[in-house]
Structures are given as C-alpha cells and as structure tokens.
Amino acid sequence: MLALLLLAQAGAPLAEAQRRVLGQPILVRITGYLGAKRDQPILVTSWKVNRGRDIYDWHVVKLDVLSGNTAYFNIVTQLDFYSPAFSIAGDDTAIATFLATPPGEMVVVIGYLRIDAARRVLTLDTVEPVPATTPTPARDGEPRAAN
To answer: Mind listing the pLDDT tens digit for each residue in 95-146?
Structure first.
C-alpha cells in the first residue's frame, strides 16, 4: 500500500507539470481543411470546432508547436476527449477568412491554443490558403514531379 502511495505521489508532479504547460497559451501553426473528410492526405487528427453555436469539421494534416515545451501529440491527446475540441476566437478578419474557406481547401492557421480545465480556445492570428501544387513538366525519360 505504501509503495502505491509513493508511486502515485511521484507521478503527481509530472502530471501537474504537463497540465501547467498545456494551461499556458501555445503558439501553433495548423495546416488543414474544413468540411467532409477525404481519403488523402493522411491526417494527424480531426476535430469538431465551434464558433458560437456553429460547429465545423476541421481535418488537420500538420500541427507545429511554435512556442512552449510540448509536442504536437500532447495537444492531440489532450483534445481527443472533447467534442467540440475547442472554440475559435481572435482577429475578426482571420475568423472570417477561416470560416469562409471552401470545404476541402487547405489553409494554414497561426494562433494561440489554450487548453485548461475551464476552457479550450484557439485564438486565430492569421489564416492563409495553401498554394496549390502544380506539376513540373517532365524531361524525356523522367517521371513527372509535383512542386
């Protein structure tokens, strides 16, 4: 019994430290698209996110942590339990751009994600479309490559 108590106490600081890290706003860059899920590209995760009463399906193909001492998979794991995963807030122009993105069109979002016991909010700073790739003309005998 004493061993279990000591083991539980030893793990408490680690769990508390992780909650503190994720409780602070984390600057993230998220590449993904709104709308119905597609077969390609391979997804990191899919979230339901809300703005007011409206809920949107957001499919994430890349998640970069730009500040803080956490890994992207810690964020994904923390948000797995919630639906919607978080609310969208921030710059009015960025919010309007994000919500007006046509379904399936890739966008890159930069903003601060806050995950704590009371709330989960992504405060948008910038939203930009991902440029479409164009095929590069193939030389004789070489396969065609995409940019």
So the answer is: 999 999 999 999 999 999 999 888 999 999 999 999 876 665 656 666 555 5
Number of domains in the chain: 1
Residue 47 in domain: yes
Domain assignment present for 44: yes
Tokens, residue 65: 């942590």
How is residue 34 written in tokens? 């709104």
More confident residue, 107 or 24: 107
5 assigned to some structural domain: no
Cα-based distances in Å from 55 to 20, 29, 30, 65:
28, 21, 18, 24
- Residue that has been written with the tokens 């992780």 in this structure: 18
Domain that holds residue 105: 24-130
pTM confidence score? 0.76
Q: Is residue 53 part of a domain?
A: yes
- Crossing angle for the helix pair 72-79 and 2-23, to the nearest 10 degrees: 100
